[in-house]
């Protein structure tokens, strides 16, 4: 474009020069040449300015791209950090909810156990023991007409209270031995299925879930008509849940809800099922 303009100007100048006298044409030629040089210089100046502006635009574009990249990276990192925080909070809330549910289950279980222990203590005899002949026992080891007193026989109530006291004190190994001794010595007792259930609960509280499952199965298998069967299914469900056997835990708790819906542990079993159904 610039060359075309110069060509037009030059052609016009030549025509003007051709139409003028020689002296006037010479002056006019010089003036035209001067104007042409000025136009060339201005054109060169404009080109230089245009090149400078182009460099500035490129530099600004580069800086702008870098700034946008930095801002995008910061936004992406910010969103990622926020998502990580939200995920962490969600996991913490889930853990807290599970622990609260577990605490509710434990509180319900402990309430039942404390009530059973209180009932057992209320039934504990307060009278002093006498020997089978009716004479009071002496601490000095004196003899009577029939010789030394015979050893006192095992008391099922005393053995039950001792084992339950060890259980309440957290001495689960001693409690298990006491309940096993009770089952061995008094297999026809009405409380024998409860003793076997306490063995299951002791193993469960010790974290020995495999043994807890076996102990609960012994209640279900050996005492199918006993009143401890519903809770045995429920405790078995808890142990299987701890062992990550979700299907088995659901089956055990579902048995309580469907077959023993009027039992005291039916509500706890339903809570266990709701907890197992959560993602």
What does this structure look like?
- By secondary structure, the chain is mostly helical.
- It has two domains: 2-91; 155-277, Tetratricopeptide repeat domain (Serine Threonine Protein Phosphatase 5, Tetratricopeptide repeat), CATH 1.25.40.
- Helices cover 77% and strands 0% of the residues.
- It has nine helices and no strands.
- α4 runs antiparallel to α5 (192-206) and α6 packs antiparallel against α7 (229-242).
- It is rod-shaped, with a radius of gyration of 50 Å.
- The model is unreliable at 125-152 (pLDDT under 50).
Give a concise summary.
The protein is built from 9 helices and no strands. By secondary structure, the chain is mainly alpha-helical.
SSE layout and pairing:
Layout (H helix, E strand, L loop, with lengths): L1 H18 L2 H101 L33 H13 L3 H14 L6 H15 L2 H14 L6 H14 L3 H14 L6 H12 L2
Helix pairs in contact: 1-2, 2-3, 2-9, 3-4, 4-5, 5-6, 5-7, 6-7, 7-8, 7-9, 8-9
Span between termini? 74 Å
What is the radius of gyration computed over CA atoms, rounded to a whole number of angstroms?
50 Å
**CATH architecture of the largest domain, please?**
Alpha Horseshoe
Beta-strand content: under 5%
Number of helices: 9
Per CATH, the class of the largest domain reads Mainly Alpha
Helix content: over 70%
What CATH calls the topology of the largest domain is Serine Threonine Protein Phosphatase 5, Tetratricopeptide repeat
What characteristic shape results from the CA principal axes? rod-shaped
Mean pLDDT across the residues is 80
Major sheet attributes: none
Oligomer: single chain
Q: How are helices and strands ordered from N to C? A: HHHHHHHHH
Counting DSSP E segments of at least 2 residues, the number of strands comes to 0
**Low-confidence parts lasting 5 or more residues at pLDDT below 50?**
125-152
